[in-house]
Amino acid sequence: MVQLICSDKVYEKLSRELLKRQIDIVSESSLTLIERGFDIPEGKISIVFDALDYMEAARLLSEGISRESNPIDAVTGFYQNRFAVISPKDILYLESGSDGIHCFTPQNHYSMKETLQYYEALWKEKGFIRINKSQLVNLAHVRDIIPWFNSRYVLRMDHGAELEVSRMYAKKLREALKI
Amino acid sequence: MEKINRANIVKSFFLGMFIGGVFQWGSDGGFWIPGTLLVLTASGMIGLVIGWITELATSMLPISMAKPRIYFLLNGVISLIVTGAMIFFSLTIAGGPEAAGEILSMLWPILAIVLAANVGDFIIYQETHRRLKKYKEAIRGR
């Protein structure tokens, strides 16, 4: 939902674009799209655009909304000659090896595309954190954080796996947990 | 070797200096700047060596051994070995059982420092678990 504050001409074009993208125009919305030159209302989040850029404004808004409401919740993994859909909440950890990325769930381990950095950025908000150069762990499945010598930690996972948090990434872990 | 944390070795140097300072403060030898500096440097160097040996030895421990009980037990054992070695060397240098009483009385502050460090470590461990639980709840809420 968005409120439009603009000239009649721009309103006509922009409302058509927004409706095409299934974004409703509601005057009470807390988000406003404002054509430059119009007064910015107080107490609302406002996006100012130039009349000529109305298409770009509509595109950015719809992309932002769709990204927010449809985060990539599932990925595909390859296991025994078939693909499987895996939800990030089922993933214990990801590991990069010489033959690519492997994803470990309580039941299986799958080959995956992309890189650890990609998944790290994608699932940061879901509690995935890098623990060493080659592993990305889902903190939701960590059962125990064991302090270990040489400023390292060992993570004991829900299903018994033990992963080492290297000295470099131990700081990151402490920051994530606000220790 | 790459697992060794050099920063910890440097910290051991300063901890050694601090303990040396406690020793010096507790002794009735008076305050003599060159002597005090010598004691601080020597105790710092002992700390450095102990820190290096500890880091080297612990870097060889496999993570399959990692359990909270083992970590705190090993920490305690290392502290006891280091304190025991200090008593032994102090008695050897001071020359005889007559100095033992004085040395043992000075070791109490060291034991207190070591004990406080281990208790602090355990409190941090418990706090880490509390934070992890909180973090997991926050993730579920997202």
Kindly list the characteristics that best describe this protein.
heterodimer, A: about 180 residues, alpha+beta, OB fold (Dihydrolipoamide Acetyltransferase, E2P), 2 domains, five-stranded antiparallel β-sheet, three-stranded parallel β-sheet, about 35% strand, elongated, B: about 140 residues, mainly alpha, 4 helices
Task: Outline the structure in words.
- The complex is a heterodimer of chains A (179) and B (142).
- The two termini of chain A are 39 Å apart.
- Chain A has helices at residues 8-20, 54-69, 116-122, 167-177; strands at 3-5, 31-35, 45-49, 75-79, 82-86, 93-97, 100-104, 109-112, 128-132, 135-138, 142-148, 152-157, 162-165.
- Chain A is α+β, with helices and mostly antiparallel strands and 179 residues long.
- Chain A has four helices and 13 strands.
- Chain B is built from four helices and no strands.
- The longest helix of chain B is centred in the C-terminal third of the chain and has 42 residues, at 100-141.
- At the A-B interface, strand 11 and helix 4 of A face helix 2, helix 3 and helix 4 of B.
Oligomerization: heterodimer
Number of strands of chain A: 13
Q: For the largest beta sheet of chain A, what order do the strands appear in spatially?
A: 8-7-6-10-9
Strand content of chain A: 35-45%
First-residue to last-residue Cα separation of chain B: 41 Å
Note the run of SSEs of chain B as H and E.
HHHH
Give the overall average pLDDT of chain B: 82
Uncertain regions spanning at least 5 consecutive residues of chain B: none
Major β-sheet profile of chain B? none
CATH superfamily of the largest domain in chain A: LytTr DNA-binding domain
Number of helices of chain A: 4
Q: What about the largest sheet of chain A?
A: 5 strands, antiparallel
Query: For the terminal residues of chain A, how far apart are their CA atoms?
Result: 39 Å
